[in-house]
Design brief:
This protein is mostly helical and 174 residues long. It has six helices and no strands. 17% of the residues are buried.
Length: 174
């Protein structure tokens, strides 16, 4: 029967599209987390070297290590931006497929609703949910990888820059 063969071909095509898009999304999202974890490991090594510079008052070494930490942070920030672009491509493809299936797992409005429900389960969460409700379109972004990853990376980069200046000034107050 031609109708069954066409339906089966459509199902196989849809399954292939879904597998490809979900595989892309899963790989790039995993890569983003792995990159952030690797950043934290690298920062740990650089901090140990910087602590040695402070302990021995190696001004030039400390300044160099601080500068390396700041540059590494900028590099990882750039990598995170690129990783987010790749993750978003997979999410866009999944949203297109989901639109055809009439399901909505990748729905930002649904994400905000679930976040609000989870927050309301505790007193601090209720306070946060109340705060978010005043500007829900912007404040719910506080709960995204983008905000937290980039805030941590930027804070560490600025701290390394300040550490570089502190080392150049011969670690005053230490």
């Amino acid at each position: 029967m031609p109708g069954e063969a066409e339906d089966e071909a459509q199902v196989k095509k849809l399954q292939l599209e879904l597998d490809y898009a979900s595989g892309w999304f899963q790989y790039t999202a995993s890569q983003r987390l792995t990159t952030f974890n690797f950043f934290l490991v690298v920062v740990g090594f650089v901090l140990v070297a910087y602590a040695q510079a402070i302990d021995h008052r190696w001004r030039c070494f400390g300044a160099g290590i601080g500068a390396i930490g700041a540059v590494v942070s900028m590099g990882f920030l750039a990598i995170d931006v690129r990783n987010e672009v790749l993750v978003d491509k997979g999410l866009f493809a999944l949203r297109k497929i989901e639109a055809g299936l009439r399901i909505g797992l990748a729905d930002p409005a649904l994400d905000r609703l679930h976040l609000d429900l989870v927050l309301r389960e505790s007193r601090p969460g209720r306070l946060i949910a109340q705060w978010i409700s005043h500007a829900p379109e912007t404040r719910w972004r506080l709960f995204t990888y983008r905000v937290w990853f980039r805030s941590v990376i930027t804070f560490i980069g600025v701290a390394f820059f300040v550490g570089t200046v502190w080392a150049v000034c011969d670690f005053p107050g230490s």
